[in-house]
Amino acid sequence: xxxxxxxxxxxxxxxxxxxxxxxxxxxxxxxxxxxxxxxxxxxxxxxxxxxxxxxxxxxxxxxxxxxxxxxxxxxxxxxxxxxxxxxxxxxxxxxxxxxxxxxxxxxxxxxxxxxxxxxxxxxxxxxxxxxxxxxxxxxxxxxxx
Length: 145
What we know:
39% helix
């Protein structure tokens, strides 16, 4: 069996190359500088479109949280990649369990007027100790949450 020639012809047709070759082509070959300029301008146009869409989505996206509406009251690490975070959103105080790929509501806490947002990564450890106290109090109030 001889498959050499028919396979070659089919491959040439599939790639869209003329069978006669480029020597008999009537269209002139563009210069390398023109090709590079064309590719560069195309890339700049695509990047500009992506940036414009990002700006538009950020500017006109509905349903985003108003600046300052969400406050982190306290946070502590309970595992290598897990954290328990107390946040305040408007008039609600929530205890959330945060892990890679999900956030779970652990408990809705009663609103307290004396709680102030703290730096969750505080160097003095005050953020972790106040959180521990609140966490212990919340677990005593509702041990089955």
